Amino acid sequence: MYQTFVDNPRMTRIRERTVWIHVDVPGQGYSVPDLPSEYVIDLSLLSAVATTVLLLASSLSFFFCFFFYQHFITHATLHRV
User: What is the pTM assigned to this prediction?
Assistant: First the structure.
């Protein structure tokens, strides 16, 4: 279902400008055995990883926006007629 949605031709422009991050939680992948009942997933660790990834993504977004904005301002100022 997800793959069909993403591969839709209407998603082409979005796919070209998107970074996809996919995380497999242990025991949740395709054709993998169930985890033993004594296995405990620490959800606080999972949330910490998710928070770190989101903060990194937002920091990189800010950096690139700032860089391209500065480049645009410099370029527009130097080539103004």
Answer: 0.33
